[in-house]
Specification:
Radius of gyration: 47 Å
CATH class of the largest domain: Alpha Beta
CATH superfamily of the largest domain: Histidine kinase-like ATPase, C-terminal domain
Strand content: 15-25%
Number of helices: 19
Distance between the termini: 83 Å
C-alpha cells in the first residue's frame, strides 16, 4: 500500500487515499520499485499474477521474477527510466512463485519528487498468456493454410478488403509473372489482368461479384489472363469472399488455372473415346465374322459327316462281318461321332455369341438329368477303368430348364472329368439342395488345375496343359458349360488345390421349391386355368407373337401398344393378368403397374416383362407392385409356368399406393 505523506491537507489526503485504494484493488499488477530494482509496493493484482504476497516481496529485488535469460532486460529498463524514458507495453516472460512461466505486457514509468528528481519506478503488468496462446494457434493455422495454398496445383491469390494482394502462391506467380514480393500490397487489378479470349477486351473478374454478392462465383469460360510479360493464356477462374465473424467482407480468395491443359486433356479424352469406340466396333465385327465363319464351317461339314455315318450304318448291314472290318467301322463311327460333337459345340458357341440359342424350359428333376448324362457317358469311364460314385439328393431337386441343354452341361463336366482323370481314378457326382439352389458337383482325382489357371479355365479354347501328354478337343466344352449355365440363370465354378490334386466343378441353378416334374404332377400348359390376359408392349412383333401363343392355349388375350392404351383397356375389360413391358416410351411399366394396382387391387396379377434381369431390376419391379419378373426373351410356356404356379410368383398381389 502507499503511505500518506505527512502534513498533507485533508482534501489532498482523501484523494490520495482513494487513489491508493483503486490501485490496490486493480486487476492489473501494479508495483513500484527503487532505481536499484528493489520492490517498494505491491498491489493485490500483482499478488494474483505472480503468486507473491506484498509481505513476501516488498524489500526484495524485482529480478526474482525474471527467468535467467531475461535478466538483461532489467538493466536496460533501469537505464532508460533513469534518463526519464518510458517503457510502454513491453511483452516479455516472467516466472511466478510456483515456477510457472507466464507471458506479460509491462509498462514502466519513472517516479519524480516535487523537484522533478527521479526516485523510483512504477510498473503496471498484465497477463497476456491466453492471448499469446491464441496468437500461436492462429499462426499455426495461418501457416497451415499458407502451405496448403502454396502447394496446390491451381493459382491462388488472396486479397484484403481494399483489394490489395496479401498472398500469392507459386502457381499464381508462374501464371501472372508476378513474384510474391512484387505483388504484395499491389492492387489485384495490376496483378490479375484478364480479357475476353475472343474480343481481347477487358472483362469482369469473379472477385468483384464474389465480394458484392458475398458468395462463391465462377464466371463463364473464354477468359484469358495477361501475364506481366504480355503472354496471354486461357484460364478457368473462380472466387469466394472471406467473411469476418460478424459477416463483414474482409477479403477474397481467387483461384485460377491454365485452361489450355484442361482443353488438351479433354481433346485427348475425346480422341481416346473415339478410338475405343472404333476399336470396339472393329472387335465386334471380327467377332461376328468369326461366329458366322464357325457356323458356316460347321454346317458345311455336317453334310459329309452325315454321309459318312449313314455309310457306316449301311456297311453294318451289308458289309463284311470280319473282325477287322467291324473294328474299322467302329473306329470310323466313333471318330465321326466325336467330330460331330465338336461341330455341335462350335455351333452352340456361335449361337450363343449371336444370341440365337433357344431354351425350351420345363420343370425338371436334376437327379434324372444327372443320371441320364451319366448313362450316356458311362462307356468313357468304363474304357478307362474309372470308378464313378453318384450320390443323388433324397428329395426332388426341381429346376426350370431345357432338358437337352442341362444334360449337355452335366455331360461336358463328366467328359472333362474322364479326360483328365488317370485310369483307376475316382469321379464323384453329387446332386443336392444348398441355400435354395439346385447344386451339381463333379469331383475327380485327376491332374488338377494350377491356381493361376482357375480364373481362365472357362475361357474359350482354354485347356490345362500336362507334361508329357496331350488331350483331344478344342477347349470349348467348359466355356459352353458356363454360357449355358448362365442362360439358365445359374453359375459354375472350378475348385482345385493345385496340380495333381484333382478338381471340382460346381453348377448352381435356381431351384423351384414345390414345383412338379412334367409327366408326374405337372399341369400341362394346355390344361391350365384360362385367363383374361392383357399384354402391354410397344414392340408390335413381340406383342403379337406372344398374344398368338397364349390364344392357342385357350386364353382370352387383349393387346395394347402403349402404357396409356393398356390402362384404358384394363379399366374396361378387367383382365385377371397383365403382362407389362418395362421400357415403353409414353409411360414406363413401373408407373403402369402402380396405376393398375391402385385401380384393381388384388384382382389382377402383374407380370413384369423386361430385357433386364439384374437383382436391382427385380427389386424395382416388386416395389412398383408387380407379382413376378420375367426376363426377355421368354416363351409363352414360361409365362404360363408363372400363371399355373409352376414358377413361384414374387409375392401375393396387394394394393400399392401411387405415391
Amino acid at each position: 500500500m502507499l503511505d500518506d505523506p505527512p502534513m498533507m491537507p485533508t482534501g489532498d489526503r482523501a484523494r490520495l487515499s482513494l487513489l491508493a485504494a483503486i490501485i490496490h484493488d486493480s486487476d492489473d499488477a501494479i508495483a513500484t520499485k527503487t532505481l536499484d530494482g528493489v520492490v517498494t509496493s505491491w498491489n493485490r493484482g500483482a499478488e494474483r499474477l505472480f503468486g507473491y504476497t506484498a509481505a513476501e516481496i516488498v524489500g526484495r529485488p524485482i529480478t526474482i521474477l525474471f527467468p535467467p535469460d531475461r535478466l538483461g532486460e532489467e538493466t536496460e529498463f533501469l537505464l532508460r527510466l533513469s534518463r526519464g524514458e518510458h517503457v510502454d507495453h513491453y511483452e516479455t516472460v516472467r516466472r511466478r512463485k510456483d515456477g510457472r512461466l507466464i507471458d506479460i505486457s509491462v509498462t514502466l514509468s519513472p517516479l519524480r519528487d516535487e523537484a522533478g528528481t527521479i526516485f523510483g519506478v512504477s510498473k503496471i503488468a498484465r497477463d497476456i498468456t491466453l492471448r499469446k496462446r491464441a496468437e500461436a494457434v492462429l499462426r499455426e493455422q495461418l501457416e497451415f493454410w499458407r502451405v496448403a495454398l502454396a502447394s496446390i496445383g491451381d493459382g491462388v491469390i488472396v486479397i484484403d478488403a481494399a483489394r490489395q494482394v496479401t498472398f500469392i502462391n507459386h502457381e499464381a506467380e508462374v501464371l501472372t509473372g508476378w513474384s510474391g514480393n512484387a505483388a504484395a500490397g499491389r492492387p489485384l487489378a495490376d496483378v490479375f489482368v484478364i480479357i475476353h479470349e475472343g474480343t481481347r477486351k477487358p472483362v469482369e473478374g469473379p472477385v468483384d461479384r464474389a465480394m458484392a454478392d458475398r458468395t462463391a462465383v465462377q464466371l463463364a469460360s473464354h477468359t484469358a489472363l495477361v501475364s506481366r510479360d504480355g503472354r496471354v493464356r486461357p484460364i478457368d477462374d473462380c472466387a469466394a469472399p472471406i467473411l469476418a465473424a460478424d459477416g463483414t467482407v474482409v477479403g477474397a480468395v481467387l483461384v485460377f488455372r491454365d485452361a489450355a491443359e484442361r482443353r488438351r486433356v479433354e481433346t485427348d479424352r475425346a480422341r481416346m473415346l473415339a478410338e475405343e469406340r472404333t476399336a470396339r466396333a472393329a472387335a465386334e465385327r471380327v467377332n461376328r465374322t468369326k461366329d458366322e465363319f464357325l457356323a458356316v464351317l460347321a454346317h458345311e461339314l455336317r453334310n459329309p459327316l452325315a454321309a459318312i455315318l449313314n455309310g457306316v450304318a449301311t456297311l453294318d448291314r451289308i458289309g463284311s462281318a470280319s473282325p477287322d472290318a467291324v473294328r474299322v467301322r467302329d473306329i470310323v463311327r466313333r471318330q465321326s461321332e466325336h467330330l460331330t460333337g465338336v461341330l455341335e459345340e462350335l455351333l452352340d458357341v456361335a449361337r450363343i455369341g449371336q444370341r440365337k440359342i433357344e431354351l425350351h424350359r420345363q420343370p425338371l428333376d436334376m437327379r434324372t438329368i444327372v443320371q441320364q448324362a451319366f448313362e450316356a457317358d458311362r462307356h468313357r469311364f468304363e474304357a478307362r477303368r474309372q470308378r464313378v460314385v453318384v450320390t443323388p439328393a433324397s428329395e426332388p431337386v426341381i429346376v426350370l430348364g431345357d432338358p437337352v441343354r442341362l444334360q449337355q452341361i452335366v455331360s461336358n463336366l463328366l467328359t472333362n472329368a474322364a479326360k483328365y482323370t488317370p485310369p483307376d481314378g475316382v469321379v464323384t457326382i453329387t446332386v443336392a439342395v444348398e441355400d435354395n439352389d439346385a447344386v451339381v458337383r463333379v469331383r475327380d482325382t485327376g491332374i488338377g488345375i494350377p491356381s493361376e489357371r482357375l480364373d481362365e479355365i472357362f475361357d474359350l479354347f482354354t485347356q490345362v496343359a500336362t507334361k508329357g501328354r496331350s488331350q483331344s478337343g478344342l477347349g470349348i466344352g467348359l466355356a459352353l458349360t458356363k454360357q449355358l449355365t448362365e442362360l439358365h440363370g445359374g453359375s459354375v465354378a472350378a475348385l482345385s488345390e493345385g496340380s495333381g490334386k484333382g478338381s471340382e466343378f460346381i453348377v448352381r441353378l435356381p431351384r423351384l421349391p414345390g414345383a412338379a416334374v412334367e409327366g408326374e404332377q405337372a399341369v400341362p400348359p394346355g390344361l391350365a386355368a384360362r385367363h383374361r390376359l392383357l399384354i402391354i408392349d410397344d414392340d408390335r412383333d413381340s406383342r403379337d407373337v406372344l398374344a398368338m401363343s397364349l390364344e392357342v392355349d385357350g386364353h382370352r388375350v387383349f393387346a395394347a401398344g402403349s402404357g396409356r392404351e393398356g390402362l384404358e383397356i384394363a379399366l374396361v375389360e378387367r383382365p385377371t393378368v397383365a403382362i407389362v413391358d418395362i421400357g415403353m416410351s409414353d409411360i414406363d411399366g413401373y408407373e403402369v403397374a402402380r396405376r393398375l394396382r391402385q385401380a384393381m387391387g388384388a384382382e389382377i396379377t402383374l407380370i413384369a416383362f423386361s430385357g433386364y434381369g439384374q437383382p436391382e431390376d427385380r427389386r424395382r419391379s416388386l416395389e412398383a407392385g408387380f407379382d413376378a419378373h420375367v426376363v426377355k426373351p421368354a416363351t409363352s410356356e414360361e409365362i404360363l409356368a408363372v400363371l399355373t404356379g409352376r414358377v413361384p410368383v414374387a409375392r401375393p398381389a396387394r394394393p400399392v399406393s401411387s405415391a
